[in-house]
Each structure stands twice: as structure tokens, then as C-alpha cells.
Amino acid sequence: MGKDLCKASRKGDLEKIKKLLSSGKEKPDELDKEGLSALHNAITGEQLAACSLLLENAANVNLKTPIGDTPIILALKLAKSSEKQEDIVILLVNKGADLDIESKDRKSCERYLELLPRRVIIRYKEAVQLRLRAKQINVPTGKPSPIVKPTISASTPTLSSGGNTTTTTTTTTTTTTTNTTPNTLLSQNNNNLNSVTPPLTPSIVTTVPQQIINSSGQPISRPPQLDIITPSTLLGDEFNNTQDMKIIWLEVAYRTSVVALRSEKVRYDDISKAIDECGNILVHLLEIIGNQETSSFTEIARNQDSINSIQERVKNLREGISMRLFSRIDHSELMRLVAAFVGSLHWMYYCWSEVSQDDINRSIAECALSCRSAMNSVSTSTQLPQGLLNNLSKLISNVSTRIYIIRSPSDSKTLSDSLQSISNTFKSLMVLTQIKHNSTIGANTGSPIITKSPENIITLGRSIAEQLSSLKTNSAKIVSSRVGPSLDIEVEKDLTETAAKQLRSSLDYFRSRPMHTHSLSTSLKDRLLVTVSSIQQSIHNLTKFNSQQRDLQIILPAQLIAQDLIELKQIILVDYIEPERQKQPPITEEFSDQLINSIYTLFNVTTQLLFVVSALVCHNRVADFSQVAFILSEIASCCCIILDSFCF
């Protein structure tokens, strides 16, 4: 019954293991009298080579012990007292161990991993990401993984002879191996992109969905499965030192999404931990906004009610978890408590970020002035004023808050379409500053042709003016509480795909154009490209979902966007603006304000995105999937502003 093989495996006798397996006398998964396989014995005996040999001979990497421990869980348990087990853990990850199977006491691999030293956690997560990357490109884990990088084709607004504006975008994908020179997103002189990786951003790996047939006999696809491990927090325990409310709110929204994600998996110890982590940041948040010396938030009765509601929801949810453990309530009731908690946070965030119609009208007027300045620069072939896009980022921030609370998708789409049109037309005006009158760019290159002429300049200016006027009228008359039907699935898909294409187009333009007045170093440019490209990839992954095809997987790309945003803030605000302010001459205030406002607008809309996807997972009707599409459009526009800031 495998006694000799198990004994040899425990001792690490490789020659005997080979002899027993080659003779066929014993199979790799035969059990000894204690119910343990040869692999279990090799792990217990800390024999790394024996583990590798057994796995190469088809030993079951997920075979459970009599007490329900898989090999990976057994190794993680033993790793607390033995460093030799660390290498065995990594080996099992590389060999495809199932990381989602729980032990008999309902603890996952991640729970055991949290008890180990940080170096083990880092090695474990790196091994997981390498495995996922190998899975993405469908090659064996042990071989060097090819690198799949997007090649972004030129896509800029095109002006026809009649003055109409269109946009053309083409997307291709280039696959190369690690030992060849890739045709990367960067120029050929920037081949160090492979070594530049945002520290908090793991790669998204999309498992190809299996095609199924519906009742009408038509093939449809399931939503994509994103195999990824995301951290449970963005800031860790450092949130206590943070006073910036936009960052704190993003952390609250991120931890709320973790609660929603774990609540669906019926792992009550994980839910409890997520609630505790979310409660910790909420205590810090409420201390700041409840301080009447520094904040007037609680002076409004509605806002004070929202705070009381949050405290009550957290209490109810903790009690619900305890009751569920003793089967006093079913899981659907627990999900209802989670949905109520998410809905209360959703409302409280709107109360905190609410803007008046006067604020929206003011940002519209400022944006109109920026349009006139841009038209004047195009007409006179002079440099664009510093901070020209600052007012556009303010407009996106203010209008996005109104869209966030509107319950009618068709009304939200009206405002979102205006914002999208204004952003695209501004980009067209800025592109025209790069060429001379009556000349074109893109000729004989396969790129869209743009002609600079007085007629086209007037057409673009008139388009912006009309959209600003429409935005002012519609934002004033739309009733936020009016509930409307969902958009068609094709419309939702078109909105999300347009956002992904818009950002892809700006990435390509950023790559192809030389840096303007405020140049970036090569390393910062590489990091910026990698980070924004990751955001674009996350937006693209969200295009696979819609109102009818969504599940908890929708949370993962939103969490990745939040992680990339933390890295983007580090690149722009810390590594670029702060050093530039120390130089002579220093960076202009208009330019730095444009970048800062764009970053913080991204914080606002990403916080909204996390609350919306959390509500969708919990089936809270406060959110509709179309809101995801609108928010993605705003995220793409803000990222475009940041990239365009260095091009014009």
C-alpha cells in the first residue's frame, strides 16, 4: 500500500523513489497506514527534491490528508517553524496547487500565509503572479513566459472636409519572448520597460470563457474569469497617518469592495476580518469629518444621519456574521446586511462629495474660457496656455458627482456623452496646434489626416460651446431621484469599449510625440506608460461585463485601477512635481495644478467605481451597471489629461 515509497519520500531517498516508481510496484498517490501519500511524507520530512520528483511523476498536488489538508496547506502550516518549507510552498504553487481549497477549519491558504514572515509572503505572491502570467499565454509554468504587450495604433480625432469630427482606432497585439527585443509600447530606446513594474499592481489574467448555448440555440459567452490575488488594503496600517480625505475615501471604498467580494465566498472568518479592516478605516474617517473644528460636515442633519446609519450598519453586520455561524440566519440574509452597509456608504460618500448647480455652472464657464484660449492659440500658431486642461478636469469632477447619484441611466448618459464629446474635441484642438495652417498630419503614414483650417477651428469651437450649453441645461433640469430603465446591453458595451479606446489612443499619442515644455525623465515616462497601460487593460476587462452578465469578478479590475492610481499619484505628485518645484525655474503653478486636479479627480471617480461595483455584487439597487460605464469614461478622460499635459 505504498509503505516503501512513503518511507523513502520522508527520508529523501531519490534513488529508491525512482526505482519504486519505474518498476510500477507502487503508485505516487498510494497511501500509508496513516492515510498520507508519498508527497505528504516528503513535505513532512522537508525533502524538496523528493517533492519535485514525485510531482514530475504525476503525484496529485491537491490530494488531502485524513484531516483535510492539501499539500500546500500542510506546507504552509509547517513553514511557521521551518524555513525549508518555504521552498516547498513555492514549488507547489509553481506545480499548480489549488490555492482556493480550504482546510477543515475553513481557513484558506491566504489565512495561513498571513502568519508567515514577510519574505515568504512576497515570494508566494510573486510565484502566483508568474503562474498566472504563464496561464495567460498558455505555456508550461516552468518555461520562460513570453511577454504580451499592446501595440497601440494611432488614433486621433479626424476632421472631414465638412467639419465633422470622427475618431479611428485600431488595436493589435504583439507577442515576444523574454530573450528577444520586444516591439514595446515605448520607443526602441526604452527597452527597460520590462524592469519597470508598479509595486502594487499585479497583472490581470483573463481565462478564456467557455462558449455555451442558450435556449434559442445561439452561442453566448460567460463573463471572463480573472485569476488574480489583490491585497486587502491599499494603505495598510499607514492610513492613521493620512489626513487627505480623498485618499481616505478611496481606502474606505477599496475595503468595502473586499467585504463585498468575500461575502459571496461564504468564508465567514474572511468576511469578519474584512469588516474589521473596513471598520478601522471608518473610525479614522468619522474622526476627521466629525471634528467640528476642522469640518462642517456634521452641521447638516442629513449628513449626521448618514454617519449614524453607517455605525448601525456595521453593528448589524457584525451581529449577522455571528448569527450566521450558528445558522440562526441564512446566507441571503447576511448578504442583505452587506448590501445595506454598502448602500449606506454609497449615500454617505455622495453627501460628502456633493456639488451644487452653481459649482457645475462655474466650471462650465471656466471650461468655455479655456476653449477660447485654445482656439486663439490654434489660430495664431502660439503655444497653448499653461494649465489649459485644468478647468476640464474640474468639470469632470463636478459632473461625475451628479452622474453618480442619478438613478436614471438615460439621464446619466446624456451628461456623460456631453463630457466625452467635450474631452475629445479639446484633444482635436490641441492636436491642431502641432501643425501649420492648411497643412496636415498623418499623410502617407496610414494615420488619420487632420487639416488645420479656419473652418475646422470654428467647427471644433462651436461643438464645445454647444456641448457646454447642453451640459448646463441638462444638469439643472435632471431629477436625481427619478428611476429609469436600464440601457440596452449593446449601449453599455459601446460605452465601456469607447472608454478603453479613448485611453489607448492617448497612450499611443503620448508614446509617439516628443515631450513638450515639462519633460519627463526616461524612467518616469516608462513608469507612467506602464501604470496608465495597466489602467487601460483594467477598463478593457470591464467591457466583458454587462447588466445581465456580471458576478463578483467585476470587483477585481476596479480594485486594480485603485492600486494603479496609488502608483500614479506617487509618479506624478511625489516623483515629478516635488523635484520640479525645487528646480530653477520651477514648474508653473498652472501646470502643477492641472496634474494635481486630474489625480484627485481620478481619486473621486475611482472611489465611485468601487462603491458601484460593490453594490452590484451585493444586488443593491442603488447602482446600475451603466454607472460603471460612465465612470470608466471619466477615468479614461482624466488619464488622457495627464498624458496630454506632457505632449502640448
From TrEMBL:
One Pfam family here: Ank_2
Name of this protein: Uncharacterized protein
Gene3D superfamilies: Ankyrin repeat-containing domain
Repeat in keyword set: yes
Signal sequence range: none
Region (Disordered): 143-191
Upper lineage: Eukaryota, Amoebozoa, Evosea, Eumycetozoa, Dictyostelia
Superkingdom: Eukaryota
Keywords: ANK repeat, Repeat
Keyword Repeat in annotation: yes
Extent of Low complexity compositional bias: 155-191
Extent of the ANK repeats: 34-66, 67-104
